[in-house]
Amino acid sequence: MSSESAAGRRGAAAGGLPAEVTSFVGRREELTALAGLLARARLVTVTGPGGVGKSRLAVRAAARAARSFPDGVRLVEVAEVQDALLLGHAVLEALGLTDSTARPPLDVLVEQLAGCRLLLVLDGCEHLVAACAELVDALLRALPGLRVLATSRESLQSTGEHLLAVAPLPVASGPAGLPDAVQLFADRARAVLPGFTLGPADEPDITQLCRRLDGIPLAVELAAGRLRALSVEQIAARLDDRFKLLTGGSRGALPRHQTLRTTIGWSHELCTVQERLLWARLSVFAGSFELEAAEYVCAGDGIEADEMLDLIGDLINKSVLLRVSEPAGRPGGPRRPARWSSGAGAVRYRMLDTLREYGGQWLRATGDEQRLLRRHRDWYLGVATWGEVEWFGPRQAETAERTELAHPNLRAALEFCLAEPGEEQIALLMAGTLWFYWVGCGHLGEGRHWLDRALALAPEPTEARAKALWVTGYMATLQGDLHRAAPALEECRRQALATGDDRALAYALHRQGCAALIGDEPGRATELFEEALWHYNTIGELNSNVLMAMFELGVAHLFQGDRETGELWFGRVRELCEEHGEQWAYAYGLYAMAYAQWLAGDVRLARAYARECVRLNYLFRDLLGIVLGVEVLALLETEPAGPGEDCDLVEARVLQGAAHRIWQGVGKPFFGSRIFNGAHQECEARARAGLTEQEFLEAFELGAVLDLDAAVGRALGDEERPGGPGRLPGPRPSPRSPSPSPVRNP
Fold this sequence. Notes:
Elements: H1 6-9, H2 28-40, E1 43-47, H3 54-65, E2 73-77, H4 87-94, H5 105-112, E3 118-123, H6 129-142, E4 146-152, E5 161-165, H7 180-192, H8 203-212, H9 217-225, H10 232-237, H11 242-245, H12 260-270, H13 273-282, E6 288-289, H14 291-298, H15 308-317, E7 322-325, E8 347-350, H16 353-366, H17 369-391, H18 396-419, H19 424-433, H20 435-440, H21 444-457, H22 463-478, H23 482-499, H24 502-518, H25 522-539, H26 544-559, H27 563-580, H28 584-600, H29 603-620, H30 623-636, H31 649-664, H32 678-690, H33 693-704, H34 708-716
Parallel strand pairs: 1-4, 1-5, 2-3, 3-4
Antiparallel strand pairs: 6-8, 7-8
Helix pairs in contact: 2-3, 4-5, 7-9, 13-15, 13-16, 14-17, 17-18, 17-19, 18-19, 19-21, 19-22, 21-22, 22-23, 22-24, 23-24, 24-25, 24-26, 25-26, 26-27, 26-28, 27-28, 28-29, 28-30, 29-30, 30-31, 30-32, 31-32, 31-33, 31-34
């Protein structure tokens, strides 16, 4: 039928698309994707949580596609229909079609729309999803010229359905400027405060506000509406009770969209009893989680373990849960090699904080919150324990990635232990067990935060406290905070002697050796390392810490001028790393090996070792290991790599600037050690002697503005490093050196 058809002649009948009364912000990618789907699919369903903007997106996409439908585009507000038996009549009304016979509405629609080329938009199908699916399936089979665009919090699960899941608006700044959520807030703020302007000083606070609102457009708009009476800071302060704060939407909005509570409550009402129960229980998770965690924490008392997968699928289908496929690598960092990605690429799930808070209120109302929080704590104590075990072995990098993914939930479990009376020992145990993550993955400051709190709450001399003490002393030493390290390690040593805890004694002596080495006492450090290694051997302890003791003993010999003995220990570390597939301790060994080769005059091999040190530490995001390697590479730039080659003093100074910025995220540069700082001072003296004052300062400033990824790319001289940046404008790097043989996994 042409545009003169029955449907077409009615033009902008009651079912026509509404005119937009507020600006449309963002969603460029979604609109493009939706246009492509509408061009090739006859049924497209836009899904997403309540308030995410499904309706606005669908209407905008339908308006853009209108030229492709000679008989028009019609909108049916399914949300206004409460009785499934009236759905067909609502579609007839939206299309402006009348029929006074007793025929079923479906028959009338098929007859009246025969030959039409029409786009039908069904908005808000979730509460009548089965009826909508049945009607759509029948219409599409009977009317070849019909296409349907639906919005729903869950899919229709109809034949031929194509889905477009809509996420909240971005809250992180991108290359295009302000994030979409912030732009939306500013636009709606100007509607209630005509003089409102978004200045640079306001952007961080508004960005943080939008982030706490999950970027949900409805929540952002409701928050902006509160500017009539509150400042941005006051709104943020009241977000802990966001369901009271975020009310008062437009009177013209659908009832389910006038407050955040009713928007989410609408989703809650659509869930079965078991789905609501699981929603409440899953609220104990922070960030993303895997199926096994959900099964352990949430099964039982009304939910069988073998029902969990289907229930999670149902909550995903209803947009309560989001399905997240985590990338193999941290945002902004390199992707993991394929052999390390098995855990990181698995499907995980996440609940928006707003939905999580709603579920948490229901969980508290059931009186089951404490039990669920304890089960959550038990699971993540297990994550920490297994992580420590698997840290020493070929799955080390995978362990780092899995622990990184669990980080928000580990924080939540630690917070629970520290806030709940009687849980202090478990807090000590968990915080101490996570030493491998705090130290090996660049979280020294956070690790000390948790350990300091736990130690203050649990002063009794337990095994867990002994471990927490040596871990605290270790991290304080790495930060150059020997005033805090010394008493913690001495308390650990005294307690170990008093209780006969040989393992704690070995670790206390080992870390006291580290403190002596950093305190510029290599002779004393040598004695302590040797004593610690004797104890480790006696109790049969072999792990990354023991290998680090060997490496540190080699460094102590090196700093005393005994390069031969130092290299023997470095060789032993390398052998054990190759045997066990250990990468992290090996990376530190490479730092020492690079330094030793520089002393021996083999610049080319030293550079290869130092670059491999940086590369491996970068995989773990170990800032200390990275910066030590970068410092050695800076020094090596002041040396010709071979006959006919020149040094590059400018590049040396650039790398020193990059290292300076990284040290700020670690602690005192070179731990405040005079001996460790010697190579840096030598490099600086050479650069100052060979450069003008302006070149000397400008090169350092160029390096100091590089972020971590750019600094590592610069140090490696690798423009094609996957996931890394290209080189910034500046001096070219020295010729690339051959890489040393990688550690072989067994």
